[in-house]
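Hello,

Following up on my earlier ticket. Below are the three sequence lines again, exactly as submitted.
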Amino acid sequence: MAQDSVLSDELLHHLMAVGHVDVLVGVPTLNNAGTIRPVVKAVHQAFARYFPRDRSVLINSDGGSDDGTPSLVRNASADDTETVTVSHSLRTVHRISTPYHGVPGKGNALRQIMTAADLIQARAVAVLNADVTGITPEGVAALIRPVRDQQFDYVAPVYQRHPLEGPLVTQLVRPLMRAAYGWQVRDPVAPEFGCSHRFVSHCLEQDVWDTELGRVGIDLWVTAEALAKGFRCCQTGLNPHPATPTRTPFGELFAQVVDSAFACLERHAPYWLGRNGAEPMPLVSPPPTVAVEPPVVNGTRLTEAFALDVENLRSVLQDILSAETLASLEALAEKQPARLRYPDPLWASTVYQFLLAYRGGVMRREHIVQALAPLYLGRTGSFLRQYATSPEPLVDEALENLCREFERSKPDLVQRWNRV
Amino acid sequence: MPASDPQPLWFKDAVIYQLHVKTFADSNGDGIGDFKGLSSKLDYLADLGVTCLWLLPMYPSPFRDDGYDIADYYSIHPSYGTLDEFREFLDAAHARRLRVVTELVLNHTSDQHAWFKEARSSRDNPRRDWYVWSDTDDRYRNVRIIFVDIERSNWAWDPESKAYYWHRFFSHQPDLNYDNPAVREEMWNVMHFWLGLGVDGFRVDAVPYLIERENTSCEGLPETHAVIKFLRSQLDAHFPDRMLLAEPNQPPELVRSYFGEGDEFHMAFHFPLMTRMFMAVRLEDRKPLIEVIERTPEIPESCQWGIFLRNHDELTLEMVTDVERAYMIDEYARDPASRIHLGIRRRLAPLLDGDRRRIELMNAMLMSMPGSPIIYYGDEIGMGDNIYLGDRNGVRTPMQWNGGWNAGFSTTDPERLAQPLISNPLFGYQAVNVESQKRADHSLLNWMRKLIAVRQTSQVFSRGQTTLLKPANHRVLAYLRTLGKEQVLCVCNLSSSAQAVELDLESLAGALPIEMFGRSLFPRIGELPYMLTLGPYAFFWFKLRRF
Amino acid sequence: MAQMIANAIRQAGTNFVESLSVFLPRMVTTLAIIIVGWLIAMLLRTMVRAVAGWLRINVAAERFGVTPLLKTADLPPADVLLGAIVFWLVWLGFLLSGIDVLGFTSLQGLLASFWAFVPRLLLAVVILIIGFVVANFAWRATLLAAVNGRVPSPRLLSGAVRWLILILTGAMALEQIAVARTVVLTAFAIAFGALSLAVAIAFGIGGGGIAKRILEHQFPEQPRSSADEISHL
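Thanks for your patience. The regenerated structure is below:
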């Protein structure tokens, strides 16, 4: 079985000792020595405080760290600063750190974690992100409880963030996924989630793991798969996700995210083509209310290059966009960068036409995605400029309108999709 | 026991059987057990393999606390027989090499005791100072109340002498004042009396509470230990081969103090071990047991722990954390009627859902852990309980000897029995009784006989050192018992499913494990991890031999 | 004399008739071959166009940017073009076979040369096709990378890349069909070398600053562009 290579002898040995569990927390790592200890501590405190009676295990799936991350995990004390008398675990707490095979990437790590979860019949699984600090025991519990107590299959996190943060999500991925899949998921690309054993078994049976989507877009795929295959999904509030700068350059990041999003839509077309509207997703617990500072961003710089980019890419864009859309973009490009306002309908239409080009294979897919990047920057720049000093509710409203615009334009997308 | 057979440390190798005369066997048909009836059952007890009997209080008493409220220390309750009948019972027990330990309630008497009647009659009475009096009830504030479900205060108002008297237990059990030397002397006289008759030792009830001092918990004070040392010194001087067993329900680190330096109690109960055995089996995780064993301090060489699964009281949850208590209540006492004070008033078999395998596992652990095991009467056949009887009476029902009239306990009318019989189809006397189990080879009774017999083949269980092994599989509890060159490896599967375990036995390489029940040979231990597989709740005792 | 002339005329006439009787069947054969060849070529053209349609050659051509090039060159769509190529090759083959039957000595080796030439011609065509595709791919890839990487003059750069590849391809194709081999090789070497030298000089002297910026761009210490200054996820 493909699972055999995912399961090393060493991991199997550990799993035999652990036996069946009620709660499994998976933490993929690759050189996270700086941030891993608080994560491990938060997990153990969550076990002791919120799940003292449950059989539990922490599995760290490591991609070959050379900064000592695995040994930090193994040596972390479960009772680090925990006072024993008040809240200690009734049971043996297990902690496994094991390397996974294959190219280092979230996909392989997650596959190993899910395989382990499947084998030891974990009733509730949570996957955490080791790249950032800020996960609390309450956050860990928030991902697990809806599965364990309320029989949800998938739990997506909601981070308390300023609406101007994470534009790749707010401007592109969220409205696109929302309109397509018909669910109002706040952050479809979140690196953390909770899920049930049922969902884990299902994911392992899918043929995504050896694809590019499985390698770099697994977070998005997991969300999309849960929505598309009728699993019971909900959202839960987590502590603010600190916006630490990602190590991946923008170009690569954009390509990974957008390519993954488009690939997901292509895979799940039979589901979303027939879906209308967008239902709110149940929020089992709101995010902790913390005052968030608006990010310091300079929208102007992002719009400065827009005109030149449109001009330079004209010969490529004309193979992707309709003449009308291209003309609108060129008209936009003629404006001063400071006055650039990329309207919602045009942006939605742009994204959908790129999606159709992606599906139709009018050129290599990576070229299609690369061609979208400058347009995204222009759109983001114009939005940031417009709302940089606006109060949060106003920004939220603008983003909601954007989502509705995507929903409004969906029937046209559906019609054209079937013709490609 | 004949004087020519003095064994001062006999209690270290004892297998103790705790019973209540009142509910064991009735010879005169009055519905209450007695010593003649008990004497008639001594062959059964000897055959079971136990070596010591511990009797619950047999003194004259108004029986408002099942005999722990003593009205006369020098006599036998008329319902149980006469002093002569008691002597005859003692002799018969000793003839079968069964030692006898009785109760000694040091801390308090019944309010019907002559001493208290005198003490309360006037403030000038010579016995006044034999009890703890106060004009107000705010002395010794913040001392915890033991019977929280019944009592509201440790002080009770005496209308006769217009003063408060101190009682750590029920209000009809006034505490004796051990600051008075006369009290100490008298209690030694009491002990002397019974020891002179031939009693082999005392289980001393409510030991920590003898002395009170302001701004303390009034438990385990240095002055209390001084009293104990006094009594022990007297015992050693006059009856060196007798035994004192303490009952302090406290964490093992605190119980340690009751052994002194070998100059206080010979034995003390290990309460926390008992609780954690139940916890570990339910959790299917050895963690609670490992923790408590590692926390158990070393005790003097001449001392011994008393370990048990159940007794006449509730399964106490006083000395556990809130999380642990909540877990135990949720798992073992779902029916609120089974809860009392801070514990669970159920017998062993109902607690374990009548699961034979779990009952065997728990008994196997009891018989192989460090300490002298104590079996509560009826648990050797898996008797049930009645949680709808008041107080702890549900676990003190008549012994079930056969499936006939009154379970063979008494010839009286069933309605006249001092305690009603257990009669439900699952645990009732028709289904669970000695006579049936004697006839069935594979009954629990015969299995217990075999278990005790195997345990008694070696002193390693009673006197050996204990080394915990911690294999990766947390559902398996494994430990090594060592006495000199003798070694026994005990492996227990705490889980309801089959388990595989790899034991690191490199230090024992070359030894040949021989399973002690069937005497089967197992593969020789090598340098690689030793793999064992165990069925649900199974256990192994391996004698390790070298050739 | 008259008899001799008459005999000569008669002999010439006989010879002529004999030659004609030898030539005419050959002529007929030749015509038959040509006509049959034409029919077969037509059939093959139709089959090739059908197979090309089934293989969606047009879509692939669209994808690799071959179709616009064909349009620019006023050529028919890819499947039609393929069909035409096959038609002409096959019919030319039959034509030459037919001519060969006529037995013109001066044309004797023509057929052999033709059949020797066809594989190289086909190879040259394949090289051209591959070259077009690669050039187009490289053009688009360079353009997008340059635009997203904020490299100056992306269109110039990508266009240069395309033309370089096209020229190389053309040279390789010509070299394959051995047309003015030496001239082509030499001209290509000179042109390529000169271009490289010019670029080096331009960069080294005139474009040092740009070169420095491009290198810093490739190996950045700070966020390479405004895009990297914000957190997109």
